[in-house]
Design goal:
mainly alpha
């Protein structure tokens, strides 16, 4: 009789132990699920905040990019035509032995002696490149390419200025009044050395015109991408 009671009590104890065990497992599962949900929500919150921060950077970058476009757009026509101006000047000097100043010569010299050099505001551009979290991969690629182009344009435009100062301005410094544009002598202009210097500058101006066109085109492309992204987000 006592053995029966002991068996029943033992059976109930096992059943209770099994119930407690299942209950404990359920509690652990619920805790784990709760932790995973909390981590997921926290990750989503961080991702959202990162995206919002990147949008703020894009807005600042857009403003800076438009400012830089304004710096270039007034010289867009000039860089499209100046390489041809150098060709025309060389042809003109080769075909004409000049004893006096002509309107054509004055025009060619005036156009080819311009010396625009470019430096860009890049604070927001650099901040975006450093801070971006790849929320907008297309913009990221194009912005990095834009920075490279701006840096290249800065280098080659300053090289063009240096060449004109050393091989152009100094060469004819005694022949032309740079303030009034009046030309006093054509001796230097008629020389082979002068034409050779023009050939050298011509190659630099061609490369400068190419990079200028790529840069302003890329700046406009980045602006369009930023406008589209801000509208979508």
């Amino acid at each position: 009789m006592f053995r029966i009671f002991r068996n029943l009590r033992h059976k109930k104890t096992l059943e209770r132990s099994k119930s407690y065990f299942l209950y404990a497992i359920g509690e652990i599962i619920l805790v784990v699920i709760g932790i995973l949900i909390a981590l997921y929500l926290n990750t989503r919150k961080e991702e959202f905040q990162e995206k919002q921060n990147e949008i703020v950077l894009l807005e600042k970058l857009k403003e800076e990019n438009l400012y830089n476009i304004d710096l270039l757009k007034d010289n867009e026509d000039y860089h499209q035509k100046v390489p041809e101006m150098f060709y025309s000047l060389v042809d003109y000097l080769s075909e004409n032995r000049l004893d006096s100043i002509t309107d054509s010569l004055a025009y060619y010299l005036n156009e080819t002696m311009k010396t625009p050099a470019y430096s860009f505001s890049q604070g927001n551009l650099n901040n975006y490149i450093v801070s971006q979290k790849n929320n907008f991969p297309e913009i990221n690629r194009e912005v990095i390419y834009l920075k490279n182009l701006q840096d290249d344009l800065n280098v080659i435009s300053n090289k063009s200025v240096d060449l004109k100062l050393e091989d152009f301005y100094k060469f004819i410094n005694n022949d032309i009044d740079f303030y009034t544009g009046e030309i006093y002598s054509t001796k230097t202009i008629n020389s082979v050395a002068f034409r050779n210097n023009i050939f050298l500058m011509q190659s630099v101006e061609e490369e400068l015109a190419k990079i200028f066109g790529l840069t302003i085109g890329q700046m406009r492309k980045v602006d369009s991408l930023i406008v589209r992204t801000l509208k979508e987000n």
